[in-house]
Amino acid sequence: MNLLSVSHLHVNFHMKEQELAALIDVSFTLNRGERIAIVGESGAGKSVLGFSIVNLIGKPGYIKSGSIKLENKEITKMNLRQLQEVRGKRIAMIFQDPMMTLNPVLTIGDQLVETIRSHTKISYKDARNIAIEKLHHVQIASPEKRFDQYPHELSGGMRQRVIIASVLLLNPDIIIADEPTTALDVTIQAEILQLLLAICRDNGVALVLISHDLGVVSKVAERTLVMYAGHVVEEGPTLEIINDPQHPYTQGLLNALPQMTLPGQRLNQIRGSMPSLAERPSGCAFHPRCPYATQKCRQEQPRFIYSGVSSVACFLVEDMLNEFADKDKEAS
């Protein structure tokens, strides 16, 4: 049984008597201890998907249809009390800005102890010991000292470590990390990613890493979903997607990485921009930006097909595979 199963998920936003689709027919599974990444530009639907998993989509957004199951339990049908049992204890989230998560008027220790005691019936002393142990676990020096400090007294990297410690307090099965290193410099980014990777490996925790950067994803995730305009357009093993991207959008994301250009050269970029929810084009949503788009791409939505060990929604790839199949028939 899969730990997490998302099936045909549709999420809409009701705006001024207009229904806008934010997620369209998204499906994927996550096994215990597995690390997957959700990749795409801003507006692709990555964060909406992350919030949907724990049913945290607020109005005017709502889950229109589809299924999100944690083992055999349907999250979309849970009441508030049931959701509180899932959030934090079974599925925990790490956000990109720790200052939006940490309360500036409470010490680090008070916040960690409050989290523990809201879910368990243990003494303050025992909760304090657990909190200090978790701070030590995320490689925070002098955790007893940090326990009594306020968020503004810590560096950005230290605050993000505190957030990681907080999600470990209740030993979750899944961590959803939404752009957890965006606000950090490159050196600290690498340290945080290595910390997340080690924690997941050592504790058998599954990870959903949300990112716009395939370079970041390559260091952590075993499997990657590429999203565009609310759709998953490519899915497969991370190394396979990076070494042999199938969808033109995935190819564009890889070509836009700084390491893909020589020093002094301008960075490659995908022409155009992500469409808004109200302006999603017909057919394949990527066709206005795609150098290979045909009339069929403008009119029809491509279906998912297997290409090697990956699956991709692209008429170009489908036509190429059909051509190879026809040549094989002729040769035989």
At a glance:
With 332 residues, this protein is α/β, with parallel strands linked by helices.
Label this structure with key terms.
332 residues, alpha/beta, Rossmann fold, 8-stranded mixed sheet, 4-stranded antiparallel sheet, 13 helices, 12 strands, 23% strand, globular
Describe the structure.
This protein is an alpha/beta fold. The chain has a domain at 4-234: Rossmann fold, CATH 3.40.50.300. The chain contains 13 helices and 12 strands. The strands form 2 sheets. Strands 6-7-8-3-9-10-12-11 form an 8-stranded mixed sheet, sandwiched between helices. Strand 11 and strand 12 form a beta hairpin. Helix 5 packs across helix 7 (156-168). Belongs to the ABC transporter superfamily. Residues 6-254 form the ABC transporter domain. It is found in: Cell inner membrane.
Sheet with most strands: strand arrangement: 6-7-8-3-9-10-12-11
Mean pLDDT: 91
Describe the global form: globular
CATH topology of the domain at 4-234: Rossmann fold
- The count of DSSP E runs of length 2 or more, i.e. the number of strands, is 12
Q: How does CATH name the architecture of the domain at 4-234?
A: 3-Layer(aba) Sandwich
Main sheet characteristics: 8 strands, mixed
Task: Report helical residue fraction.
Answer: 25-40%
Q: What is the tally of helical segments?
A: 13
Order of helices and strands: EEEHEEHEHHHHHEHEHEEHHHEEH
**Gap from first CA to last CA:** 41 Å
- Percent of residues in beta strands: 15-25%
The CATH C-level name of the domain at 4-234 is: Alpha Beta
**CATH homologous superfamily assignment of the domain at 4-234:** P-loop containing nucleotide triphosphate hydrolases
Q: Indicate the low-confidence ranges by residue numbers.
A: none
